[in-house]
């Protein structure tokens, strides 16, 4: 496919804006590979800095005491440096647009917030489940019925305009989503593979997939309800949605995807949630050992399934256990009356 302005595009697992971002350093640097590489790393490193600034601004508005710690949790995190400054994954740009959307909500710019969330999904389709959460929150917080109707109309116009403008140069029929659909058929660190393997085959892959989607669906319905309440509940709902997406329904989980729930978690002004989020990123770094040092040796299928299951638990079990234990202690720590 040919994009106006000289960008050459191919069917991609990214959204149309994601394809533009990936092609931009090459377009600027031409055939100079070193300059192109440095531009890509500079661009994503800048997104880390800007994203940290937005976290500071958001938390300064809702919970000032957590503003600096949360800012440092993103801006001074080895996981973030390794995956986005060094490896250059464009998830950081997707999350930057989400942070802009959250910041827009703190200023009551509801249409801008929804538009930015859709733009983030046009970087990577992973943020699509957040669209209804932002829509429900903004709809529920319109002061009158008339404003709710106008919000719906404005949201439809803004969303369709952005989608049409983004896809017009990329549309190639069903081939537009060909690579995305083929990529989600891969298996890596997924609940589905873990459940099928840990059951010794008594649960088929298709059955495990249905169970995973049911679990995600239950979590998603809960987050839809959360998003209708208040701003903090919206953040919790977004965090749960992204975590459940990776933990239950996704068949292909790369370690750097853990940035998605991490950013929402550090925006929630609760110490135990922030610690669990940081723990999640360190566990994700450990999971890089799988494709980097173990799968490269080409283990057998049975060994590969076992390795997948091991690293699935390595990523998701420690932060969940930490949250459960800290919550259990909080419930049963009665105040002293002596």
Major sheet: order of its strands? 1-2
**Helix/strand order, N-terminal first:** EEHHHHHHHHHHHHHHHH
The average pLDDT is: 82
Q: Helix segment count?
A: 16
Distance between the termini: 75 Å
Strand content: under 5%
Write down the overall geometry.
globular
Number of strands: 2
Low-confidence stretches: 1-12
Query: Into which percent range does the helicity of residues fall?
Result: over 70%
For the biggest sheet, the summary is:
2 strands, antiparallel
Gyration radius, rounded: 21 Å
Helices and strands: which structural class? mainly alpha
Report on this structure.
The protein is mostly helical. Helix content is 72%, strand content 1%. It is built from 16 helices and two strands. Strand 1 (2-3) and strand 2 form a beta hairpin. It starts with a strand and ends in a 6-residue tail after the last helix.
How would you summarize this macromolecular structure in one to three sentences?
The protein is mainly alpha-helical and 338 residues long. Helices cover 72% and strands 1% of the residues. The protein is globular and about 55 Å long.
